[in-house]
């Protein structure tokens, strides 16, 4: 144990996760005057929302909502943001007393000095798959995560880097620094908000859908990237041969409500984001047919059912029946086999592109970070809400609150509401300290 | 107007069905089934009619017989409702409904009744042996006579009326209009399905199982022929003796593999075993094995001093031919072939 590298910091609240929910919680607390440390494991804050195209049911641009919030978080005098960082251990020392051990992984770039000029990207000879574009295109080993990232600074992917030094040579402010090492901080805080979000279902677990085997079968997140303003191809293309698709299928409940893959619950967003994408596709490719294969359409939120009706009016076809299997034709088109439930007859349909509407799974890990108290999980491994009706942000540990999809599947408006609730409950917890 | 019967699934559970009420009607089972097609889309429709308890629809349906239980629907069912086992249970249910004596249903539902029937017949055979002072000279020809009588009477008294009943439920009652000519035209299908079960090959992963099943059926039918019409136990013809050895060995080797996979439960089809399934495979194994040993004892000239061996064989034979063939799983073979036949006629009639 090298105790001497651990620096001590002090804040009021530690927010784990810099997505839209964690960001909302951090902003509310900062505006009330609390000092907040926001720890994000990715290289940019903004979570999954900053990568989306538009939001349902208003069709507002997702980036146009997220980027101003992200800028506000980044510039707020009461918020410190650590990207590429994660809490290793959080110990409760008493009420309003937590010690967190936070690991800052090296980015190999001096973020304050980097101007985001992208010359390092041009110079870097290494190409790898771009995780922020969900594998649709490649990126360099020296790269800016994505165009609207915050901080908009380069990073070195040291796993892929060949240490040739080409980026160092071209960098105008000389901000690339291969001598950076891991830094550990001991952070003293009074309260914790966990906003660790969700992960997407991996469709490789359903081999009969042929994801990765058939190139024109993509996930909804990949389609989201194809539709976003900062999209890689500047249009919608199918990955197999770059053809513009004109007959697209959506397979709902891929990895949701499916005991055979271990996730029996509804992901709550797939129906609506698929309907949203279908409407956007109608705009992007006016001649294209879009068919949504569904089990039940769950359009439960404000304006959702009208939005569903709008998609039907626009000509999106809704077919009740779960897709059983997908096979590929020689020309890259796909044959979907399903039962038309209304007719009670098994049918096959050909589409030139298939989008798997993948579900939401819990992002495990936070329960292991708390070392002397147990952060309880619910039966589906999301963070358990100790008092779901009266105080939805409370967890099994007093002073630790949950924000957004860390507590279960929910859409963006609900995540922001949940982020607000977590900050309000954290505030009342912090206020109690002063009244004692 | 159909009347729904929510209690029906409780009755079906006696035949082994898992939990059809878990089904949320997504149709995944039908879509993954390689045997399902536009004319016969199953198993979801069968799950649906079972949940609703539409007994008339079930009794008139041939779909349960078109399934060969590869188990794909059950392994991929999002609700773990086990549609494959439901189809199997519906086949047991249908066997019980076709059977005019009602004994099939009793034996399927009650293990006690099965045990009593098996023990009763065993006692009868031993009593008969005792009354003839266990003299094989007298008893073996009697056993041979029994085989011939059993085949004839089981077929005419039980199986033939049941097939007519099946025809009445699935063809006549639903009003299928087919001329006599079509019944002749489709006859080829009946023969082909009965002897090859070639439809199994439509299942994705069933090639080896089909082969095992195919040689088992051939082995069984030819052993039946060899013992009954060529009088295997009393013949001196070397060719027939060897033929019988080969046939009985095929039976116990293949059934040994079936029993093994039912114990290991490594395939979807062998995960759920009802008493009727165990009785079927074990008794078939015993049939092959005891026949083999009896002939071996004859050839080694030790049967005289070990007449008990023949009685073991005779007990198994009597139980097999009077319980399992007419009322148990054996009748699958017959009903399934006739279901294909009737289905073909239905298709031709449209």
Low-pLDDT regions of chain B: none
Distance between the termini of chain A: 37 Å
CATH topology of the largest domain in chain A: FAD/NAD(P)-binding domain
Q: What order do the helices and strands of chain B follow? A: HHHHHHHHHHHHHHHHH
Class per helix and strand makeup of chain B:
mainly alpha
The largest sheet of chain A is:
5 strands, parallel
CATH architecture level-2 label of the largest domain in chain A: 3-Layer(bba) Sandwich
* Total count of helical runs of at least 4 residues of chain B: 17
Please identify which CATH superfamily of the largest domain in chain A we are dealing with: FAD/NAD(P)-binding domain
Coarse shape of chain A: globular
Beta strand count of chain A: 25
State the distance separating the first and last CA atoms of chain B. 25 Å
Number of strands of chain B: 0
**Major beta-sheet overview of chain B:** none
In what range is the share of β-strand residues of chain B?
A: under 5%
Helix/strand/pairing class of chain A, anyone? alpha/beta
Average predicted confidence as pLDDT of chain B? 90
Integer count of domains of chain B: 2
Structural descriptors:
heterodimer, A: 436 residues, alpha/beta, FAD/NAD(P)-binding domain, Alpha-Beta Plaits, 3 domains, five-stranded parallel β-sheet, 22% helix, 27% strand, B: 350 residues, mainly alpha, Fumarate Reductase Iron-sulfur Protein, Chain B, domain 2, 17 helices
Describe, in plain words, how this protein is organized in 3D.
The complex is a heterodimer of chains A (436) and B (350). Chain A has 436 residues and is of the alpha/beta class. Chain A has three domains: 7-105 and 182-197 and 363-436, FAD/NAD(P)-binding domain (3-Layer(bba) Sandwich); 106-181, Alpha-Beta Plaits; 201-360, FAD/NAD(P)-binding domain. Chain A contains nine helices and 25 strands. In chain A, the strands form eight sheets. Chain A has a five-stranded parallel beta sheet with strand order 6-3-2-14-25, with helices on one face. Chain A has a five-stranded parallel beta sheet with strand order 16-23-17-18-19. Chain A has a four-stranded mixed beta sheet with strand order 1-13-8-7, with no helix packed on it. Chain B has two domains: 8-98, Orthogonal Bundle (Fumarate Reductase Iron-sulfur Protein, Chain B, domain 2); 111-349, no CATH class. In chain B, helix 15 packs antiparallel against helix 16 (307-327). The longest helix of chain B has 37 residues, at 136-172. Chain B is globular, with a radius of gyration of 21 Å. The model of chain B has no long low-confidence stretch (mean pLDDT 90). Chain A binds chain B through residues 208, 253, 257-260, 295-296, 321-325, 337-341, 344-347, and chain B through 24-33, 36-38, 41, 44-45, 48, 75-80.
């Amino acid at each position: 144990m090298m105790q001497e590298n651990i620096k001590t910091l002090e804040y009021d609240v530690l927010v784990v996760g810099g997505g839209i929910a964690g960001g909302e919680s951090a902003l509310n607390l900062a505006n009330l005057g609390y000092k907040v440390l926001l720890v994000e494991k990715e290289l940019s804050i903004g979570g999954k929302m900053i990568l989306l195209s538009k939001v349902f049911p208003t069709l507002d641009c997702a980036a146009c909502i997220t980027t101003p919030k992200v800028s506000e978080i980044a510039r707020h005098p009461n918020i410190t943001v650590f990207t590429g960082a994660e809490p290793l251990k959080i110990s409760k020392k008493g009420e309003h007393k937590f010690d967190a051990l936070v690991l800052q992984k090296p980015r190999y770039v001096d973020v304050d000095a980097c101007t985001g000029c992208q010359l390092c990207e041009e110079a870097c000879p290494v190409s790898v798959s771009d995780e922020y574009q969900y594998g649709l295109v490649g990126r360099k080993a020296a790269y800016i995560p994505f165009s609207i990232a915050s901080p908009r600074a380069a990073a070195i992917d040291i796993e892929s880097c060949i240490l040739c030094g080409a980026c160092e040579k071209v960098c105008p402010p000389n901000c690339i620094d291969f001598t950076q090492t891991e830094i550990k901080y001991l952070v003293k805080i009074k309260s914790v908000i966990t906003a660790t979000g969700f992960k997407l279902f991996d469709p490789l677990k359903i081999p009969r859908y042929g994801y990765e085997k058939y190139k024109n079968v993509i996930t909804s997140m990949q389609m989201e990237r194809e539709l976003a303003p900062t999209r890689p191809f500047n249009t919608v293309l199918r990955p197999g041969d770059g053809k513009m698709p004109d007959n697209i299928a959506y397979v709902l409940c891929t990895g949701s409500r499916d005991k055979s893959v271990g996730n029996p619950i509804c992901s709550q967003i797939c129906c609506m984001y698929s309907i949203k994408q279908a409407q956007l596709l109608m705009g992007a490719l006016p001649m294209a047919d879009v068919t949504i294969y569904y089990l039940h359409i769950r359009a439960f939120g404000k304006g959702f059912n009208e939005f569903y009706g709008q998609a039907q009016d626009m000509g999106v076809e809704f077919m009740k029946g779960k897709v059983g299997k997908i096979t590929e034709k020689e020309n890259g088109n796909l044959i979907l086999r399903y039962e038309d439930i209304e007719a009670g007859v098994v049918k096959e349909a050909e589409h030139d592109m298939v989008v798997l509407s993948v579900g939401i799974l819990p992002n495990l890990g936070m329960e292991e970070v708390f070392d002397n108290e147990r952060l309880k999980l619910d039966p589906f491994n999301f963070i358990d809400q100790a008092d779901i009706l009266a105080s939805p942000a409370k967890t099994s540990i007093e002073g630790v609150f949950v924000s957004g999809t860390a507590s279960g599947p929910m859409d963006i408006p609900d995540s922001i509401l949940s982020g607000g609730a977590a900050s309000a409950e954290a505030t009342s917890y912090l206020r109690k300290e002063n009244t004692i | 107007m159909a009347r729904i019967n929510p209690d029906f699934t409780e009755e079906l559970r006696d035949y082994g069905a898992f939990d059809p009420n878990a089904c949320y009607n997504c149709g995944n089972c039908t879509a993954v089934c390689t045997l399902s097609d536009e004319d016969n889309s199953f198993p979801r429709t069968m799950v649906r009619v079972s949940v609703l308890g539409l007994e008339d629809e079930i009794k008139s349906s041939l779909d349960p017989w078109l399934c060969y239980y590869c188990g794909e629907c059950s392994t991929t069912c999002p609700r773990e409702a086990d549609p494959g086992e439901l189809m199997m249970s519906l086949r047991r249910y249908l066997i019980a409904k076709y059977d005019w004596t009602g004994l099939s249903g009793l034996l399927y539902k009650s293990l006690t009744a099965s045990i009593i029937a098996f023990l009763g017949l065993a006692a009868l055979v031993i009593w008969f042996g005792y009354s003839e002072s266990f003299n094989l000279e007298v008893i073996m020809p009697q056993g041979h006579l029994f085989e011939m009588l059993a085949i004839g009477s089981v077929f005419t008294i039980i199986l033939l009326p049941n097939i007519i009943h099946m025809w009445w439920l699935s063809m006549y009652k639903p009003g299928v209009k087919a001329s006599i000519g079509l019944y002749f035209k489709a006859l080829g299908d009946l023969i082909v399905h009965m002897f090859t079960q070639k439809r199994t090959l439509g299942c994705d992963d069933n090639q080896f199982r089909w082969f095992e099943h195919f040689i088992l059926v051939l082995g069984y039918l030819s052993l039946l022929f060899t013992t009954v019409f060529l009088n295997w136990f009393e013949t001196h013809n070397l060719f027939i003796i060897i033929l019988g050895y080969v046939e009985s060995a095929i039976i116990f080797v293949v059934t040994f593999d079936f029993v093994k996979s039912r114990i290991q439960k490594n395939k979807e089809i062998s995960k759920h075993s009802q008493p009727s399934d165990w009785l079927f495979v074990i008794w078939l194994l015993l049939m092959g094995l005891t026949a083999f040993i009896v002939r071996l004892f004859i050839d080694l000239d030790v049967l005289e001093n070990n007449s008990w061996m023949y009685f073991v064989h005779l007990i198994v034979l009597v139980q097999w031919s009077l319980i399992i063939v007419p009322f148990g799983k054996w009748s699958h073979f017959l009903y399934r072939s006739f279901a294909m036949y009737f289905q073909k006629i239905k298709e031709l009639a449209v």
